[in-house]
Amino acid sequence: MSDNGPYRILCVCLGNICRSPTAEVVLRHIVEASKLNIMVDSAGTSNYHIGEAPDERSQRYAQKRGYELSSLCGRQLITRDFIKFDLILAMDAQNLEQINRLKKVAEAEFGINALKAKIAMMTAHDQSQQNVAIADPYYGEGRGFEHVLDQCESASHAWVNYFQKHHIG
Ligand code: 4NP
């Protein structure tokens, strides 16, 4: 385990094609604007969309706000992520449950002391939507994708305020 390098955050949803890639890019944008030494990645709890680019609707609605998702590639959460990352952010309660389930596997594989990732909801520090789910837009309409962006922007600002207050990154 090393304390060198940036603070590492992994955003996690089900498919890694809608919510978590959006959260990744929005959080990275706000972290960079705040000059924090933090890297951001994303993954899905499922294997449904491994190797795929983000959902075309997520890309399009994000692009309208200046966020570029096109180069991202879907991947599944793996046990090593609990060693590599400092913070794993769940988009909803089901994601949180799956993350905690895989954490048990990681503990058995690497030993409890090897794991460093804290686990929280994406909205954990956002007073306007505290611990509320980032709503899954996959089966809905365009408005759902706008709502994901609104939620991710608000939640990311709250996390950056938290990091600044606690001298993280
Ligand atoms: P995401 O959205 O978890 O925000 O990436 C979904 C993507 C795919 C599916 C469900 C949700 N799916 O059932 O394939």
TrEMBL record:
Keyword Hydrolase appears in the UniProt entry: yes
Protein name: protein-tyrosine-phosphatase
Stated family: Belongs to the low molecular weight phosphotyrosine protein phosphatase family.
Organism: Acinetobacter pollinis
Domain Phosphotyrosine protein phosphatase I: 7-162
Assigned keywords, A-Z: Hydrolase, Protein phosphatase
Enzyme Commission number: 3.1.3.48
Transcription regulation recorded as keyword: no
